[in-house]
Amino acid sequence: MTAPATPHILVVEDDREISSLIARYLRGNDCRVTIAGDGTDMDRALAEARIDLIVLDLMLPGEDGLSLCRRLRASSQIPILILTAKSEDVDRILGLELGADDYLAKPFNPRELLARIRAVLRRVAAEAPDTDDRRRLHFSGWTLDVSLRQVFSPEGARIAITGAEFDLLLALCLRPGRVLSRDQLLDLTQGRAAGPFERSIDVLISRIRQKIERDTRNPEFIRTIRSGGYLFTPEVTRS
To answer: What is the DSSP letter of 50?
Structure first.
């Protein structure tokens, strides 16, 4: 599976100047663009066309971006890139916790936005490193189905997991017993370097632990290494 040659991007932004700037730049770089000014417009656009990625501003009239992000994740796996003001650190973290795949702070360079969009689309569309479509990874009773991008508990129950969470868990499973820094994990999963206050990896690790660890305060599978990063401890097998 490959990223769409002409991805359809839905820009949910009420500032017409900003949305026009984004649309003009993305259209000039082989993207289809639909603009929505609020949640109602967003719902209409999603009902009328296939959308490959949503650029979602957090400060919107009516239903705000965080609420829209939560609602989208309850019913869809469409990648979400949130736009925030630099002062909205808490909202940015909440957006990631709600399932957003990436974020970009305003003001931003349209070229960086395009790079982030392409990185997310590549990550979502990327095939597993092994070309065997039936490949599964197993650890301590858990199973990752790489081709279906699904996770199953030891009891066989399918676990709800976002694309970003799956990519990070897969990166860890492919490198068991190795200490991986936040920068390495960010590069492996999102194809970019960490910013000075980057916390997205920590947020994703916390979310994954809540789903696979018996005790999140004393995690067995994903251990935090002080001044190092994270270590995936279980033995991993393939089938």
So the answer is: -
pLDDT by residue, tens only, the chain of 239 residues: 566 678 999 999 999 999 999 999 999 999 999 999 999 999 988 888 888 999 999 999 999 999 999 999 888 889 999 998 866 678 878 888 888 999 998 889 999 999 999 999 988 776 334 444 448 999 999 999 988 889 999 999 999 999 889 999 999 999 999 999 888 888 778 766 555 556 789 999 999 999 999 999 999 999 999 888 999 999 999 88
**How would you label 169-201 residue by residue, b for 16+ Cβ within 10 Å and e otherwise?**
bbbbbbbeeeebebebbbebbbeeebeeeeebb
Cβ contact 182:202 at 8 Å: yes
**Domain assignment of residue 13, given as a range:** 8-125
User: Is residue 91 located within the same domain as residue 159?
Assistant: no
Q: What angle do CA 57, 82, 42 make, to 5 degrees?
A: 55
Domain termination site, one of 100, 125, 150:
125
> CA-CA distance, 70 to 66, in Å (whole number)?
6
CB atoms under 10 Å from CB of 238, counted, come to 13
d(CA 19, CA 33): 10
Centroid of chain to Cα 120: 7
In a domain, 97, yes or no: yes
